Amino acid sequence: MFKKIVVGLDGSETSENALRIACDLGKKYGSAIHLVYTAHPETVAMPVGAVAGFHAATTMPSAEEVKAAGEKVLAAGVAIAKKYGHKTTKTHFEHGKPSDRIIACAEDCGADLIVTGRRGLGAIGSLLMGSTSQQVSHLAKCACLTVA
CA 136 to CA 142: how far, in whole Å? Predict the structure, then answer.
């Protein structure tokens, strides 16, 4: 049913829960798993070391910090996928708006499903669903699963 599953990661617990569910589905259907991390100020703050709920607005992370943060998130994602039996997981390090990059990755690889966390490291302003997962669900051309 699902040959390719794209999972949006940002280093948050909810995005890791999304990955665990994607791995479970992937194991059942023999799916390839694609992990997408998008470097964006809101998603770089936590892996770089900012305190939860506070953005490092006074100074933007350096290119090296952004790269290291992305590599850290993707490496953690690959480790989770391996733990759930996925030995070959493709990773995508993107730059731009997370929802746009997740959707583009899904379209480029021909994904049948996109899995995202309901609330990640995005703006605190969205009360019920994170803006990235909401936009992905609204704009994607394939099935979407949003995980709490």
Answer: 10
Q: In what order do the strands lie in the sheet with 143-147?
A: 89-95, 32-39, 4-9, 113-117, 143-147
Instruction: Look at residue 41 and give its three-state secondary structure.
Output: helix
Q: How many domains does the chain have?
A: 1
The predicted-structure confidence for 43-83, as pLDDT tens digits, reads as follows 555 455 554 445 545 567 788 888 998 999 999 999 999 99
Task: Write the CATH number for 137.
Answer: 3.40.50.620
Q: Is the dihedral of CA 32, 136, 128, 51 positive or negative?
A: positive
Reference 25, options 44, 6, 48, 8; nearest CA is 6
Domain that holds residue 14: 4-147
Q: Which one, of 43, 24, 26, 30, lies nearest residue 102 by Cα? A: 43
Q: Residues with Cβ < 8 Å from 102, sequence gap 6 or more? A: 6, 8, 36, 38, 114, 116, 132, 136
pTM of the model: 0.84
Straight-line distance from the first to the last Cα atom of the chain, in angstroms, rounded to the nearest whole number: 23
